[in-house]
Amino acid sequence: MSVTRPSGRRVDEMRSIEMIPGFAKHAEGSCFVKFGDTHVLVTASFEDKAPSWLRDTGKGWITAEYGMLPRSTHSRMRREVTSGKQSGRTQEIQRLIGRSMRAVVDLSKMNEKQIRIDCDVIQADGGTRTASISGAYVALYQCFEWAYNEGYLNSIPFTDTIQAISCGIYEGAAVLDLDYPEDSAAETDANFVLTGKGGIVEIQSTAEEEPFSEEEFLRLMRLARIGCQSIEKAQLKAIGK
């Protein structure tokens, strides 16, 4: 089905992707990721110890935090720290980022170390969680390289690459990589977290109006795989692979 997207893109066309590794001077790993007008700074910070509940297991841990700057959106939003608590959305997204990274890392090879990933949305135009996950892979890879070169790790413990992308049903058509005008008007929106080898880590899919069909879901899945292949190419280029 043909549809005119607000951006003029084809239904299977992504926004431009840019990943700038090593963007943050002081972090062990970092990536400034841009999906069109969605811009996220991701850092990965190394800690020479694991959480207490992993003591003497040999396993390490990866956790994540996520936040949006006050003017990352059209109108200023209040910093969550000033309200004294994080929103449910923020908690859900940072847990998703942490789960996604742990899904492609052999934690038993982390020598009881912990890495904290911070995703700060500088500018939002849809797909901030998926951009965060995709950029987090690059930042975490850099952090692992640093830890390996410093002698903290015996290897880089990734088992696969990982990417995330949004898709949706917009004006009756399945489209790839929703920007804000599409996301806010989509009949169905979905976030896919997939691995380079084709594994599925997580799918979040919701009908905003009419229920969507299995056929429509499979169209979204096919688009997600197309998008994730493009993201993986950008990731591998960013880490020099």
TrEMBL record:
InterPro entries: ExoRNase_PH_dom1, ExoRNase_PH_dom2, ExoRNase_PH_dom2_sf, PNPase/RNase_PH_dom_sf, Ribosomal_Su5_D2-typ_SF, RNase_PH, RNase_PH_bac-type, RNase_PH_CS. PROSITE patterns: RIBONUCLEASE_PH. One of its GO terms (biological process) is rRNA catabolic process. It catalyses: tRNA(n+1) + phosphate = tRNA(n) + a ribonucleoside 5'-diphosphate. Its EC number is 2.7.7.56. Keywords: Nucleotidyltransferase, RNA-binding, rRNA processing, Transferase, tRNA processing, tRNA-binding. Residues 13-142, 163-225 form the Exoribonuclease phosphorolytic domain. One of its GO terms (molecular function) is 3'-5'-RNA exonuclease activity. Phosphate binds at residues 89, 127-129. Phosphorolytic 3'-5' exoribonuclease that plays an important role in tRNA 3'-end maturation. Removes nucleotide residues following the 3'-CCA terminus of tRNAs; can also add nucleotides to the ends of RNA molecules by using nucleoside diphosphates as substrates, but this may not be physiologically important. Probably plays a role in initiation of 16S rRNA degradation (leading to ribosome degradation) during starvation. Homohexameric ring arranged as a trimer of dimers. Belongs to the RNase PH family. NCBIfam families: RNasePH. This is Ribonuclease PH. It comes from Temperatibacter marinus.
